[in-house]
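A reminder from the course coordinator: this example appears on the midterm review sheet, so study it carefully.

Given structure:
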């Protein structure tokens, strides 16, 4: 009887060991899948960051161009106003 009990226990232990190997292999696969998912997420985040950086650079360049254009327009308006005052001063001086 003892011998049969030992065999049953050995079979059970063998099954338990097989189950533990199965669980370990599954956990390993889950960890690898989780790593791949994280890696893919990181790749997506890097791509998004690169896209946003390019968009930011483009907008900053456009802002610089608009600010330069505004400064040139202010200078033109100032030049026109200066010329208008000069003409007005000459014409008003001749009238007197």
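Designed residues:
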């Amino acid at each position: 009887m003892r011998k049969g009990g030992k065999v049953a226990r050995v079979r059970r232990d063998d099954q338990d060991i097989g189950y533990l190997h199965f669980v370990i292999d599954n956990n390993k696969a889950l960890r690898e899948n989780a790593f791949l998912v994280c890696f893919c997420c990181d790749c997506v985040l890097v791509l998004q960051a690169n896209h946003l950086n390019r968009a930011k650079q483009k907008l900053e360049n456009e802002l610089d161009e608009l600010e330069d254009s505004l400064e040139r327009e202010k200078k033109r308006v100032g030049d026109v106003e200066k010329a208008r005052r000069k003409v007005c001063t000459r014409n008003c001086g001749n009238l007197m």
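DSSP finds one helix and no strands in the chain. Residues 50 and 84 are 51 Å apart (CA to CA).
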